[in-house]
């Protein structure tokens, strides 16, 4: 239930898009990247939601590259090109950090990395920030913890006892000292906006952006690309 991966779709592989393959010690890793032309440009490293896969993020990679930024969407075990692996909180963290180390080996320093996560991916992005990666953090529709989300959805069961993968962002937030931008829709029925607001008070350097009338899956649904433009500006 926590990892409802969509049917695998192979992402494109033509300039400026590249496949970044690696290994995390337990299995393959994969990312879809568009590397910046300028050696000092920031690179957005993105962790997607639980119903996504990196092949769905092609437009963001192309847009970031066109605006002079780098972009790298990290795939999760159990998803897309890694559908042969099993997802878990630990395996997502291993794959994420292995990809970040690959980027560092390619000359993309930690000072150039901007971490980004959406929904499920906000927990992965936050964990990477606690490990010293990135100089900025973008959280789109974040949750306080996966236990809190599960308890809202299944009120009659003790989620704290049943859920193994916790993604406890609330506990980690106070230790994240880099600038954070949190974006949340006011009408999100899956992860309520109150969770985003609450997290903005826990991160020491957070900015909260509430989008009136937006839900969980439509943050990028307007033609003006308001949210994407704010993310690019924040990354710069």
3D structure, described in words:
The protein is an alpha/beta fold and 236 residues long. It has a single domain, classed as Rossmann fold, CATH 3.40.50.1820. The chain is 31% helix and 20% strand.
Secondary structure blueprint with pairings:
Elements: E1 17-23, E2 28-34, E3 43-47, H1 58-66, E4 70-74, H2 89-105, E5 113-118, H3 120-130, E6 136-140, H4 146-153, H5 159-162, H6 169-172, E7 180-185, H7 193-202, E8 206-211, H8 226-235
Parallel strand pairs: 3-4, 3-5, 5-6, 6-7, 7-8
Antiparallel strand pairs: 1-2, 2-4
Look at the structure and give the mean pLDDT.
93
**How many separate domains make up the residues?**
1
| Order of helical and strand elements | EEEHEHEHEHHHEHEH
Which percent range describes the beta-strand content?
15-25%
Low-confidence sequence ranges: none
What is the CATH class designation?
A: Alpha Beta
Q: What would you call the structural class?
A: alpha/beta
CATH architecture: 3-Layer(aba) Sandwich
Topology, number of strands: 8
Number of helices: 8
